[in-house]
Design a protein that fits this description.
Blueprint (H helix, E strand, L loop, with lengths): L1 H5 L8 H33 L4 H50 L2 H7 L1 H43 L5 H44 L1 H6 L3 H27 L1 H26 L4 H42 L21 E8 L10 E8 L4 E5 L6 H6 L9 E6 L2 E2 L5 H6 L1 E4 L8 E2 H5 L8 H10 L3 H5 L8 E2 L8 H13 L5 E5 L7 H16 L10 E5 L11 E6 L2 E6 L1 H7 L1 H10 L9
Helix pairs in contact: 2-3, 2-5, 2-10, 3-5, 5-6, 5-10, 6-8, 6-9, 6-10, 9-10, 14-16, 18-19
Length: 589
């Protein structure tokens, strides 16, 4: 229950409903507990004495009490729903906010499939448990205790029977719960795996179809689906024992009541109405036990989900602001890597970057070349602090980026990531995603620089064209140009283009390069500050005019210089150049 209590702070806004719901349930239980006593009165007094008036009056009283109890139960349900649904919504929102604060390293570790399960199924399990707590876990103990007290007061001769059944049932239920609890955690882990495969396939359905791998992916989904089903069945099989076990105890109890009660009636020690009343109370006692056992199983499952939720809420971002982080900062764009070494697992694995040392001056364009996996994207991700360096430091205008407020730092850095991500909404909304208050003129200017304005105006709705999910109604090149416009709209001191023109044709790419060079170097507006650009590209034609080209090999800088300098001094660069542009090859490589 520790993890469930850990989430208790989310209940504070709903304390009124949390108080009122049990009180109203108490009213319903009290009215329900009076019913067997009134039945006993009808049988032993009214019917025995042929007093029809007493039978009618008592019957009307029973109906009145039932209506009062129903009103209490209905309003309890309303308040329980208000509390549990509000709690679930707040918890889900807190989880989502937490995910937004996590660093790339945290997200790499937690994985998307698990986070989807946390935000959906795990929250639902805890929310359902709370609703049951305010309904059943209030009703069942009150009914159990009330029934035992009334049995003790009305038929003390038979009170040992429900007490014995109570002990037997509780021992059995606790044994079942003890075995079921770890299995619920495994079920949620299997659900994580299912969500991961499903998300991958929905996001990559075009790749699946292009490579005719539908059957393979169906089989892969079938495996995780079967694993989830198998584990769920194992838990269900164990939980299924609970109901028959409690029902067996109830039926044995009823047999015992009829047997021993019948003897007492025959011997004149008890009346028929007392047996009927006792039978009702015994049934209520055992039904209460059954309800308690079911909710304890639900709480056991909720505890497993609450533990997973608490793990996410307790996760500390690997990248955090210092207490005195600098917030008032307007950089010119000088970026320096000072003997930087970086590993995704700290010192636990081989470094992705080793002793990287270079300087990018304001207004310069720095290009990064190298084979796949050599660390180009990792290098540029250190500038906005998506990750922190393992050793050395990265500075912006001489200030270590770790000394800057993260939001301040990132507002001065525009980035078009390797994987273009667009959001549902209009083209205009996507371009001004990072600058929501940007004017239409600023949006158009950014789109023109990114060579996106013409194709946008070709749409019937222009900038009001609705972008489909993940930009499905746009080509790869169009999405990339919108992403570049989005980065440019920030008017950043540093612009990072992570292979962001790979889907753009050579002619358009050349226009983008020329427009960016004019913009970032200040030629289009001499009074504007110089801006620094980092470009990662697979095509060497993209980087020919860069002020500085860094050739990465074996996780470190193998060569540095302009195109002409590297062509003369770097065998690696010369090999890349000749493979793509030499020997009569086209610029496409």
């Amino acid at each position: 229950m520790g993890s469930v209590r850990r989430l208790g702070k989310f209940l504070k806004p709903y304390w009124r409903w949390m108080v009122l719901a049990p009180l109203l349930m108490t009213v319903e239980v009290a009215m329900d507990l009076l019913q067997p006593m009134l039945i006993e009165r009808i049988v032993d007094v009214g019917i025995a004495n042929l007093d029809l008036g007493l039978v009618v009056r008592t019957g009307l009283l029973m109906i009145s009490l039932a209506l009062i109890g129903a009103a209490g139960g209905i309003t309890n349900g309303v308040f329980a729903a208000k509390a549990s649904q509000g709690f679930g919504a707040d918890l889900r929102e807190a989880l989502f906010r937490k995910v937004q604060t996590l660093s790339f390293a945290n997200l790499d570790e937690l994985e998307t499939g698990r986070l989807v399960t946390n935000l959906t199924n795990d929250v639902t399990q805890v929310q359902t448990a709370l609703h049951m707590l305010l309904r059943i876990l209030v009703r069942a103990p009150l009914m159990l205790v009330g029934s035992l007290v009334l049995v003790l007061l009305t038929t003390p001769q038979l009170v040992s029977l429900p007490l014995l059944l109570l002990v037997v049932v509780l021992i059995g239920v606790l044994l079942i719960i003890n075995r079921a609890y770890p299995l619920f955690g495994v079920v949620q882990a299997k659900l994580d795996a299912l969500n991961t495969v499903m998300q991958e396939n929905l996001a990559g359905v075009r790749v699946v179809k292009a490579f005719v791998r539908g059957r393979h992916e169906t089989q892969r989904f079938g495996v995780v689906n079967e694993n989830l089903m198998g584990q769920t069945i194992r838990v269900a099989r164990l939980v299924a024992v609970t109901m028959p076990f409690v029902m067996l105890a109830m039926n044995l109890g009823l047999v015992g009541v009829i047997w021993f009660g019948g003897i007492q009636v025959t011997m004149g020690g008890m009346q028929t109405g007392e047996i009927i009343s006792f039978t009702n109370y015994l049934a209520r006692t055992l039904i209460s036990l059954m309800m308690i056992s079911m909710i304890m199983l639900q709480i056991s499952r909720a505890e497993a989900s609450a533990r997973r939720i608490a793990e996410v809420l307790d996760t500390e971002p690997t990248v955090q602001n210092k207490a005195d982080a600098l917030q008032d900062f307007a950089p010119q764009g000088r970026v320096a890597f000072e003997h930087v070494t970086f590993s995704y697992d700290g010192d636990a694995s081989d470094p992705v970057l080793k002793d990287v040392d270079f300087v990018a001056e304001p207004g310069q364009t720095v290009a990064l070349l190298g084979t796949t996996g050599v660390g180009k994207s990792s290098l540029v991700h250190l500038i906005p602090r998506f990750y922190d360096v393992t050793d050395g430091r990265v500075t912006l205008d001489g200030v270590d980026v770790r000394d800057l407020d993260k939001d301040t730092l990132r507002r001065n850095i525009g980035i078009a990531l390797q994987e273009t991500v667009l959001f549902s909404g209009t083209v205009r909304d996507n371009i001004r995603y990072g600058q929501p208050d940007a004017s239409d003129e600023e949006v158009i200017a950014a789109a023109m620089t990114a060579q996106a304005h013409d194709f946008i105006m070709g749409f019937p709705e222009g900038y009001d064209t609705v972008v489909g999910q993940r930009g499905v109604n746009l080509s790869g090149g169009q999405k990339q140009r919108i992403a570049i416009a989005r980065a440019l709209l920030l008017k950043p001191a540093v612009l990072i283009l992570d292979d962001s023109t790979s889907s753009v044709d050579i002619e358009t790419e050349t226009k983008i390069q020329a427009a960016l060079e004019d913009l970032m170097s200040g030629r289009t507006n001499p009074s504007a500050p110089l801006r620094t650009t980092f470009v990662i590209a697979q095509r060497i034609s993209t980087v020919l005019t860069a002020d500085k080209i860094l050739v990465l090999d074996d996780s470190q800088i193998a060569a540095e210089g302009t195109h002409a300098e590297l062509l003369a001094s770097s065998p690696i660069y010369r090999e890349i150049y000749e493979s793509q542009l030499g020997n009569g090859a086209t610029a496409h490589g």
